[in-house]
Amino acid sequence: MNAGTLRQLWTVVEDTQPPLLLMLNDTDLIKQLLSQLQNRYMLTGEEVQMANVYLRDRLSLIRDMAQA
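^ thats the sequence. predicted structure below, dont judge the formating
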């Protein structure tokens, strides 16, 4: 995943309300974040797939940030 896509992804995470990040189950949270990412930015199918894997690997970090 390139640096631009990573910045876009983390912008979406930061802009999402913490209660939403905490209340959704893993699958729904990833779907929600990917949907927001795709609505804001023009991503290729490959970028979406890489973002999906990246988010799965960092769910605990995202939830920890939301709790802070």
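Helices lie at 3-15, 18-23, 26-40, 45-57, 59-67.
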